[in-house]
Amino acid sequence: ETGVTQSPTHLIKTRGQQVTLRCSSQSGHNTVSWYQQALGQGPQFIFQYYREEENGRGNFPPRFSGLQFPNYSSELNVNALELDDSALYLCASSLRQGDYGYTFGSGTRLTVV
Amino acid sequence: RKEVEQDPGPFNVPEGATVAFNCTYSNSASQSFFWYRQDCRKEPKLLMSVYSSGNEDGRFTAQLNRASQYISLLIRDSKLSDSATYLCVVPTPNTGNQFYFGTGTSLTVIP
Hints:
Oligomer: heterodimer
Structural class of chain A: mainly beta
Number of strands of chain A: 11
Shape of chain B: globular
Helix content of chain B: under 10%
Distance between the termini of chain A: 32 Å
Radius of gyration of chain B: 13 Å
Largest sheet of chain A: 7 strands, mixed
Distance between the termini of chain B: 38 Å
Shape of chain A: globular
Number of helices of chain B: 0
């Protein structure tokens, strides 16, 4: 049973729309990372948040943005959706910055049509 | 060059077989390495950590060759339940705030 909860589990959006994905971290974890996993690929790092501040960003355009809240839950926002944004979006929390003990949520499967 | 590269397979092996996967990494400063397992349409789950020359856990053995910059995963006596995708993972050195995942190696164990 995972301690990281993501919502929604599935989502269908139209090209050009905006989407917000949500993640509740495992209790006591103050660091959250977001990954995008396209079909047949490994997860790709989007960004990480530590104590409400962005702490590293992968090779994703600015239309991918995030937030972390005081309770360490997090959001991933994607504007101007493109067909290639269709993927599984994974949230992972860890106890602290630099801790390798990631716990992944079960992901949000986004389909852009 | 990609940070982490894996043979995508697929590997189709009979029950009881021994199978090995290899993974290469590009950053010689990397210190920690992981193998994750991902079942179809599920999240990745940690299988093994590799911090020194290797690690063994039951039927699973992970080995690290720093000189050649590769990590291997050996599965002995394969079970049907081992069917999954195995992801090689290398964190960024020093900060460790980003995991580089390989594309994954698909394994199917056949009865």
